[in-house]
Design goal:
The chain is of the alpha+beta class. Helix content is 18%, strand content 38%. Strand 3 and strand 4 form a beta hairpin.
Amino acid sequence: MPLRPNLMFAGDAETALEHYRSALGGELEIIRFAGSPAEQHVPPEWGAKVLYGAVHTPYGDVNVMDAPPGREGAPGDNFAIAVDVDDEHVAADVFAKLAADGIVLMPFEPTFFARKFGMTNDKFGVKWMVHVPPAAS
């Protein structure tokens, strides 16, 4: 699977998704904080905000989220590059190498949405998200 840009917004991710869809075409996918395990980690008024959103365009996908307060980044610094790796051992190695001399933002561990997931700011200041997708059912 290709690398995917992930854009983090301070509450207007859905508006951004609509804008990108109008420019690029494609279909929207939106998962909200309300009803998800992440709901307990954000303020109550964040229920309708976008936990995960994507516009699946003919040119590739753009992922977006409403980042919790303090994690959204400033415009121009509000992105991360995601990489899906099916093999947990390979993914752990990728994460460790990207995190070397950087800052781990979320440890590489199991989550409710992935077998393993981690987020790091590498030594060059670029955010990376390493994701091991759930096992196929």
